[in-house]
Amino acid sequence: MSIKTFALAAAAVAITATAASANSFGFQESVEDRNSINVELVKAEGAGTLSIYNLQGGERGALLGATMVSAGANGDVRVNVGNTYKTDVLAVLSVNGQEVASEAFDVR
Q1: Nearest to 53 by CA among 88, 90, 24, 84
Q2: How many degrees, rounded to 5, is the angle at CA 70 between CA 64 and CA 72?
Q3: Mean pLDDT (whole number) for 35-55
Q4: Alpha-carbon distance 32 to 37, whole Å?
Q5: Sheet harboring 30-31: ordered strands across?
Q6: How many CB atoms lie within 10 A of CB 41?
Q7: Out of 14, 90, 103, 106, which could bridge 30 as a Cys pair, Cβ 3.0 to 4.6 Å?
């Protein structure tokens, strides 16, 4: 394999890895038990929706609330969920109608 071919292959891997991590959440592990859920960081490759679901026994439950996010890094994303949850929650990021990332949060 020539150096040029190797460099092109390495660049392709790097681009793929970057694209795969473009839709993600920060390192947050828990959320406060309040009327709204605050997700500290949501990264989206395009404009989309952050939805919060009840999470019981590892299973996705009822939709509690949702809000729009823009492409790129979104800090302190707040989703109004009312007073309807006391269990853990699941945050789901959708871009172009496709679920692209999810993260479970402990409720404290």
Answers
A1: 90
A2: 120
A3: 94
A4: 7
A5: 30-31, 98-107, 88-95, 48-56, 59-69
A6: 14
A7: 106
pTM of the predicted model as reported, rounded to 2 decimal places: 0.77
- DSSP per residue over 7-39, as a string? HHHHHHHHHHHHHHTSSEE-S--EE-SSSEEEE
Question: Which structure tokens are listed for 84?
Answer: 């309807």
Tally of helices (H runs) and strands (E runs) in the chain: 1, 8
Reduced to 3 states (helix: H, G, I; strand: E, B; else coil), residue 71 is coil
Q: Residues 29-56: what's their mean pLDDT?
A: 92
Confidence of residue 16 (pLDDT cuts 50, 70, 90): very low
d(CA 80, CA 58): 22
Which residue, among 51, 41, 5, has the nearest Cα to 21 in the 3D structure?
41
Within 10 angstroms of residue 43's Cβ, the number of other Cβ atoms is 17
* Cα 101 from Cα 98, distance rounded (Å): 9
Map tokens 């500290």 to a residue.
40
Helical (H) or strand (E) element with 107:
strand 98-107
